[in-house]
């Protein structure tokens, strides 16, 4: 009886994570993809550094000529999150195409820069648009996946911060900070704070996000 229960548990574990343990993070990269960036840090508070891979597809049809006549790789990027255990790495979350290519056409501006950070046991996915501001999403591992627990955004004009926006999906609170001195260059910034309570039934999982460009949080 015990052996049967053990086998069932093992099968369910394999089904949930999809891959066996491996000593090499690169073994989790699917066929047709390459490793773009790698990050290390503790994501499950066991004092062992876990691993995050940013992966990129290698479809040759996505290599196109841009409006400047240059060949650019428009393959999308994705993310693989691996927990580190005694016997190797184990897949914790995977999303193969949630990020745009670093060579997207940003129109009048360059496309937002993407970088990741592991902070206080959470995964933060940052996007930056230089002097115009930045935004980032905070995910934490819970309920068998990485769930979106926070969102922060800053809109700026050069060195002047115009607006700060943050959502805590756990406390269901939203904070908007508006600079009331944004047109008065050379003077100290002064912010008016407004708090709102949001309604949310289910937290968003990293694995369920089709692409971050279309992740609309304005409903909150």
What do you see in this structure?
With 220 residues, this protein is mainly beta. The protein has two domains: 19-106, no CATH class; 112-220. Helices cover 7% and strands 47% of the residues. The chain has one helix at residues 2-17, and strands at residues 33-41, 50-57, 63-65, 71-73, 77-85, 88-99, 113-119, 122-128, 133-142, 145-157, 160-168, 173-179, 191-197. Residues 1-18 have low confidence and may be disordered.
Compute the number of helices. Answer: 1
Mean pLDDT: 88
| Fraction of helical residues | under 10%
If strands are numbered along the chain, what order do they take across the biggest sheet?
A: 7-8-9-10-11-12-13
Large-scale geometry: globular
The Cα radius of gyration reads: 20 Å
Q: Main sheet?
A: 7 strands, antiparallel
Low-confidence stretches: 1-18
Integer tally of domains: 2
Quantity of strands, as a count: 13
Broad structural category? mainly beta
Question: Can you write the helix and strand succession as a string?
Answer: HEEEEEEEEEEEEE
- Tell me the β content: over 45%
The protein's oligomeric status is single chain
First-to-last CA distance: 49 Å
How is the secondary structure organized here?
Blueprint: H1 2-17, E1 33-41, E2 50-57, E3 63-65, E4 71-73, E5 77-85, E6 88-99, E7 113-119, E8 122-128, E9 133-142, E10 145-157, E11 160-168, E12 173-179, E13 191-197
Antiparallel strand pairs: 1-2, 2-5, 3-4, 5-6, 7-8, 8-9, 9-10, 10-11, 11-12, 12-13
